[in-house]
Amino acid sequence: MWLQLALLVASVFALYFFLKPRRPKNFPPGPPGYPIIGSIPYLMKLDSTITGGMTKMGENFGPVSSAFMGKNRAIIVNGWDAVKQVLFREEFSGRPPFIFTVDPKRNYALGLMFVTYNELWKTQRRFTLRRLRDWGFGKTTLEGMIQEEIQDLLEETDNKIKLSNGIMSVSDAFGIPVINILWAVMAGKRYKHDDEKLKEMLRRIFESFRSQTYVNNLINDYPFLQHVPGFSGSFNQFMKTKAHTEEFVEEAIDEHLKTRDPLNPRDFLDDYITEMEKETKNPSTTFFREQLVALTMDIFNAGAESTSNTIAFGLLYMILHPDVQEKVVQEIHEVVGKDRIPSYEDRTSMHYTEAVLLELMRIATITPLTVPHYTMEDTTLNGFNIPKDTLVITNLDSVNMDKAIWGDPENFRPERYLTKEGKFVKPEQAVQFGLGKRACLGESLARMNYFLVFTSMVQRYRFAVVPGEGKPSTVPVQGFTLAPQPFSALLIPRNQNNS
């Protein structure tokens, strides 16, 4: 009996030490890892949020630390110097093989966001950038389309506040306008702001972005967990949203296949389908329908969530800082006037507004952690050995909230970007859209959208706290990206108070 018990205990200890993850030689320091779950319990104790946990890893172990995400070894990168190295160096440009991104037929990821650094990614990104620029990304040719959408948004807002004594929900007001701008380029179509089908899809997308947790790392390592209650909820929600969005995109592609004229392309989908037809006889082509679906979903999902949340956060901070709001309005009136919708070219004369927008993106970083990278080969970082196939978590928030860079990062202070003469200067460390080869594909459109929608709304309305309610919270809702907590505002048309 005692011998059997001793053998059982010895076997358990042997199994524990066999399964216990170990750091390679000269690997960055970090907390211990446990069999199966890795360092996740330690990280969860550090902070209630994933971003906060990553920041505290830097405080506890230095700018380059390590942990075990389930059974995968990972490095956590904090601080400007280390972050810049990782984002610019090619050997850190891979992507890990996430279970939810791998196409089951081909056994590799499709699209762009989750595709590793390979020929498919290079070819598809090059084509996508070129074609999106042709259709107006970052150019004034797209501005008229955005201004048309803004005009509809302003009219809709006027009608809403007339019926609600000036009170409007702000946190969810910009999803469809942003999607309409993006979808007009991608698929040549705009939707009515009350379109129930699109509103439902956006609701699902936003909820799936909120559902990203440490548990998903375990499901990636142990796929059977997706069927286990307590583990499966967020993952299954994500997969249902993915299927719903795929159906939406597939319908758009089918419609384009039926109605397109190859000699007169209308939008990005037409261009891509033409390229697919050119590549039909190429056995190694990267242009095929499933890739188009995944690529379109990447652009659709990323563009809708991040830009609409950025605008909402911007208006939230205007409520909390009415003095800043009025300075922005004064500059708009001086440069643009009270009636004309701002143009993107106006920004070159609006130094204070540019400083405000950059400060908003710094203090409310929508994507505080970049999409995880993956080492393509054995390499080094800050004197540590980093083996091939190591997960790389890059903390942009550690840069945007670094006291050594900003002095008082917790304070909302647009003046930090202005010279004594009042000229706007963007510092190198202001990183909102990533850097290097993996920098955000839609940065130019996102910046244009943000400037035009934000300035048009502030030009038209004064945003204030709803009477009888407390100030809206700046504490974000956590997820793959950050979102403001639901909030409403009192909107006062500026033509009512002559301001």
UniProtKB/TrEMBL annotation:
Any GO BP: xenobiotic metabolic process
Cofactor annotation: heme
One annotated Gene Ontology cellular component of this protein: cytoplasm
GO molecular function: heme binding; iron ion binding; oxidoreductase activity, acting on paired donors, with incorporation or reduction of molecular oxygen, reduced flavin or flavoprotein as one donor, and incorporation of one atom of oxygen; steroid hydroxylase activity
Keywords: Heme, Iron, Metal-binding, Monooxygenase, Oxidoreductase
Family in the record: Belongs to the cytochrome P450 family.
This protein's name: Cytochrome P450
Naturally occurring in which organism (per UniProt): Allacma fusca
